[in-house]
Amino acid sequence: MQNRDEKSINQTKILYTRIHINILRMTDILNFETYAFNRIIKYNGVFDWPGLYKYAQKWLRDRDWDFHEVQAKEKPPWVIYKWHAMKKITFYAALGIGMEFKLWEPKEVIVIKDGKKQKLTDARLRIDMNGFQILDYDGDFEKSEFLKKVEKLLNDHVMYHENLLKYFDYLDYYMHGFFTDLKAYLDMETASNAY
Description:
With 195 residues, this protein is an alpha+beta fold. The protein has one domain (2-185). Helices cover 41% and strands 39% of the residues. It has helices at 2-26, 49-62, 145-158, 160-185; strands spanning 28-31, 38-47, 66-75, 78-88, 93-113, 116-135. Strands 1, 2, 3, 4, 5 and 6 form a six-stranded antiparallel β-sheet that branches. The longest helix has 26 residues, at 160-185.
């Protein structure tokens, strides 16, 4: 019975990943990396890896982000997880966060905390986050050459400032909040929030 459930879950993941990749191919993606929209967390020590993983998923889902895992692979000494999250903000624009978790030589350790034994992970952790914006995520302007020209006019002139300023701010606040909350989960000293 479990094999059927696992197969259906894997098939759903594969289907969702294919749909997401096709959406990304059809649309214009404004990558904000050039505007310093990448964030990196580096951590070395003992932490609750399954708890961090679930916490990050919950954080995204609680804020209405569509989340899926693109890749999970063990390539010794690395364990790598790649995620994509997308949030529709208008009929035309969506925000995206690409994340990569890298664990270097993870080892399971048993720690006594508050009188209870806990299984934790001892590893070096690196979390890379990149923000981007997806324009015309439904592909409405891809139906004809005329609509493509209308889309170019919208992006280059009519909605230029809205795309770069308004959505840029939304994404900045989401990413900063997520970044800060992940650091707080890891009990890092730099987990303070300026906002």
